[in-house]
Amino acid sequence: MSRFLRIVLPAVVIVVWLAVASVGGPYFGKIADVSTNDQTSFLPASADATKVQERAAEFRQASGAPAIVVLERDGGLTGSDRTAAAALADTLGDRDDVQGVSPVIPSEDGDALEIVATLTQGAETGDAVQAIRAEVDDALPSGLRGHVTGPAGFTADLTEAFAGIDGLLLGVALAAVFVILIVVYRSPLLPVLVLGTASFALCASILVVYWLAKADVVTVNGQVQGILSILVIGAATDYALLYTARYREALRDHRTGWGATKAALRGSLEPILASGGTVIVGVLCLLFSDLNSNKALGPVAAIGIAFSLLAALTLLPALLLAFRRAAFWPLRPGYGSAHPVVTGPDAKGLWASVGRLVARRSRIVWVVCTVGLLAMGVGLFGLRADGVPQSDLVIGASQARDGQDVLADHFPGGSGSPAQVIGSATRQDELVRAITDVDGVDGVTAAAKDSPSGTVPVSGTGGTGGTAAGGPGGDSVEPTVSRGDVLLEATLADPADSAAAEQTVRDLRTAVERVDPDAIVGGVTATALDTNDTGIRDRSVIIPVVLVVILLILMLLLRSIVAPLVLIGSVIVSFAAALGVGALVFDHVFHFPGADPSVVLYSFVFLVALGVDYNIFLMTRVREEALRHGPREGVLRGLGVTGGVITSAGIVLAATFAALGVIPILFLAQIAFVVAFGVLLDTVVVRSLLVPALTYELGRRAWWPSRLSRPAHHM
Questions:
Q1: Average of per-residue pLDDT values in the chain
Q2: Cys staple from 416: which of 68, 285, 327, 465, with CB 3.0 to 4.6 Å?
Q3: Which one-letter DSSP state was computed for residue 255?
Q4: Is 283 within 8 Å of 298 (Cβ atoms)?
Q5: Partner residues linked to 70 by β-bridges
């Protein structure tokens, strides 16, 4: 290649990436515009809760979520409290983002009042609730406490918790990675180049994801946003570190930066592509999910990994070619300088010592590691990952959670968040009786478009159902009938996000099915129930699929059957250990109320895919060295050469995932701990000790049936 192209080609690559970053950067602030945290939107179309949500507008005016205002005074309400509450209801009714307001509802004990303000369909829930809370604070007399809760309140608290996900999360992750790179490489410039590569990859990913979400090709929510940022920064940095290590080696053997670049690309291209491809295939297995929130993460994460690969294999080589040895200042690798000795009696340093331990006590090492990991996994038996109440999703202060507690003290716990039953109008009476006979149901109404409140009471004692006054001219109002069905609303005695309410919904479904086999039950509680049930189903299906797919990839990459089985087995044991320790920490340190089913699935996908990454980095180098020096010597050389860079990469990835813990969302905090701890476990124990020791003991058998397994080859 001519000298002109050697200069122009890297410059063009850098300019193109600069252009992409300049266009994609502003979309960090825009992606929230195409993000949704509506739980129902993530359910599969086949779920009963989804079907009810889709048909609800047939029976009443289309509206947004209800915001429940609950007012409380210790020792009993006063006349001025009731007057202030009535004035507040009128004020809320005049708001443009409020579609309708219920009358002020007193509690039976006389200590609380309830107002249900239903938002308009197009209202921005977070902004509307924030404004309503301000109205409540301004309207209350001294001593009267007010909370805004209900579905709208919980959505607003969740939105607020995710508000820092763009700036705070990214800032913490980048700062942590920068410090680690400074410590590892002792170079002021190299960390900037590596993080610049990762940041540009994230800009490109955000740009593509934004437009795909805007076109409704992918769905984005707060958790997908956070995981995308962390995944891209962590993965791009990992791939960049692997290339950087190869480039530094090549600078010792090549006088020119161009020669070193070609050598580094030859040595790193296969493992980086294999590692990235494994992660992409792993996350795309989430498309087998029935839960749309899981499906959403698959393609979004795959896009992020693809740009991480592209940046690590194009932008970083161009940047390092531009700076050459100066990138490593003050520890610049000189041309012709000796490579570090990693094996033999003259070898010094940590990884030489680890190699000697593996060579002398391989069986003891892998047995002790395996037993230790299995012991950590005992905590799995205490793992509670069948879902948590919506009120516990936000860690720390939550006005909606406090309001829900007050509501449950003075009113039926499910006030404002009823279970919704759609069934045949001709069987309305039987449906009403079946619903009221279910333990945990406090009352039943029917949806009516012509009623000012949107519902009418029903008795289930005859005719077509109960009627209520309130229509035009004082005429009675009939329940709305659509396609031969009515919508019945059952107020639950327990809080809508409680385990007791979920059991009530299960009993409701059984009861109404006996009366009308086509009846379906939805609402807030049913949505949470269907989400948890679908999440449990997803992890049972997807986890085996991910294992099989990654095993096949490893077999193709390593040209072996035994070694991939060893790697997959080690990652499974490591995952069990991380999850077991996580379960103990969640219960006995943080006292979390449980875990979402998706925590197990997401942790598994990331740990297996990323854990295999490090094994790929190690084993591809081991195979390369084994072809020249024999299987057992290849293990020691591969371990010695890759030990530092893989450990650095593992610490970086653990730090980036740990950064998810700064967002006060239970789901993200749990994933942050499990993945960060699991990555460290993979890096320090599995990849450094367990896999090398087991591979060393197996010798050439580890590479069966490739040519490395044949006795005629080097030993």
A1: 86
A2: 68
A3: S
A4: yes
A5: 114, 147
CATH number at residue 454: 3.30.70
- Residue 342: predicted pLDDT: 64
Cα 622 off chain centre by? 34
Q: Say yes or no to pLDDT of 167 above 60.
A: yes
Structure tokens at 128: 């509307």
pLDDT range class, residue 461, cuts 50, 70, 90: very low
Task: Specify whether the CB–CB gap between 427 and 447 falls below 8 A.
Answer: no
Domain count, the chain: 4
Determine contact, residues 153/136, Cβ cutoff 8 Å: no
Angle among Cα 160, 161, 164 to the nearest 5 degrees reads 90
**Measured torsion, CA atoms of residues 419, 421, 427, 432, in degrees rounded to the nearest 10:** 0
Cα torsion for 51, 286, 37, 28, to the nearest 10°? -140
Is residue 534 assigned to a domain?
A: no
Do the Cβ atoms of 478 and 456 come closer than 8 Å? Answer: yes
Residue 351 and residue 322 share a domain:
no
Could you identify the residue written with the tokens 């990214």? 170
The per-residue pLDDT for range 281-296, each reduced to its tens digit, is 989 998 888 887 788 8
Which domain, by its residues, includes 315? 1-34+166-339
Which of 286, 307, 339 lies at the terminal end of a domain, its last residue? Answer: 339
In the chain, % of residues over pLDDT 90: 34
User: How far apart, in whole angstroms, are the C-alpha atoms of residue 357 and residue 405?
Assistant: 58
Same domain, 494 and 468: yes
Q: For residue 339, what are the CA distances in angstroms to 186, 250, 532?
A: 19, 10, 54
In this structure, are 447 and 313 located in the same domain? no
pTM above 0.90, yes or no: no
